[in-house]
Design goal:
17 helices; 5-stranded mixed beta sheet; alpha+beta
Length: 431
Amino acid sequence: LHDEIVNFAKLMAPQPHELKVRQDLVAKVANLIEKTFGGKEKCTIDVFGSQATGLLLPTSDVDLVITLPEYNNDPGGNSTDKSLGDEKKGSNNGEKGAKKKINADTEVTCVDDTSVDELSEKQREQREMEEFSIHDTSQHISPLARLGNALRMDPEWKDQLSYLEVVENTRVPIVKFTHASTDISVDICINQEHGRNAADLMKRFLDAMPPLKPLTFVLKYFMAARGLNEPYSGGCGSYMLQLMIVSFLQHRERHSYNYRIANTMNLGSLLVEFFELYGMDFNYLTTGISVRSDGFYFPKGSKGKLEIFHQPSRPFSLAMENPLDITMDVGRPSFRMQLIQKSFEISLRVLLSHVAEPAIETESILAAILPTTEEMETRSKMLKLNSIEKQSKLDGKVNVDESENEDSSDDQDTKDMFCSDSESNESDTST
């Protein structure tokens, strides 16, 4: 099982040409953002999430955060610029001054406020038309709406989107769209400092915990295959899942140290123990999780925690403290936690049936819980072709026999994707 997890992580890891496509898309989006908000001097664009940490699957979204100083770090993108407030105030409470300005610009000779009414209706309409500006109007809508309009209207973008949505009525307002030619989805938010900080934190965890990366690949695909990976639909998002893995590894290391147990980093046993913890042992009703200070558990009902982490309508929710903001519950949106816990429990029993004595024989243990998809088969063949081409160049060969790529059966496809192949290993070590 350990070897299969290693091979799966290699299989699903992004290839250089795939990263190049994503980087080109990010650059193209950044150009549109800078054009929409007035250039690099007025906005900065950063990548966060799985794209920044390297924990991305081929189908992962690209997460971007735009920093707009003029909006004073308002996550909803509603401007707090005093000048806008003064304009609104002047239009409501300062009618007298506004009318005097009109009188000064017109040929109508009048001194008091009531003389404005002497303007004919035609003159007032003409004045409003002359003073109307689309640019001024755009300043009064949220930057997310401005970006959404830019994507709809820009000639380089309007025909390249297969999906576009501006989601503003949520805790973190975003623009979501899918680039048609690459089929890559992009999520853009405004002034969210936690996004960049979370990516930096996860990079530090990746450096300190080597098993974190392969386990994340397997479990992210596990959740996505079951439709349990989107927080807005009650699933477990990538950030929350990574924090669950980090907490599990922290407590496992502490247990090994306290009881002087040899801590062998076997990925197969780690995956089984992860399913055992969150599928059977963990008490979701009373216990919360923190990864600060090398990780600890806390009671949900304790002083200072009850108001944040206890949800009377959803007592089974996972209380996951955000290490960057301890007043935030990362697990609050995941209202399908009972279904997620049940999927962990069932997967634990399936794995045990193949690794515990008497074991049920199977071509691939990992394939018992991760369904084989057409995408996985395509990537497997692509990686084999790349490996053969590299080896042929080293051997001084020019022609590559593509027939060596074709597998004899579908069963062999699944075995090759997850199981270690002795011939390919010999080929890799010969260099």
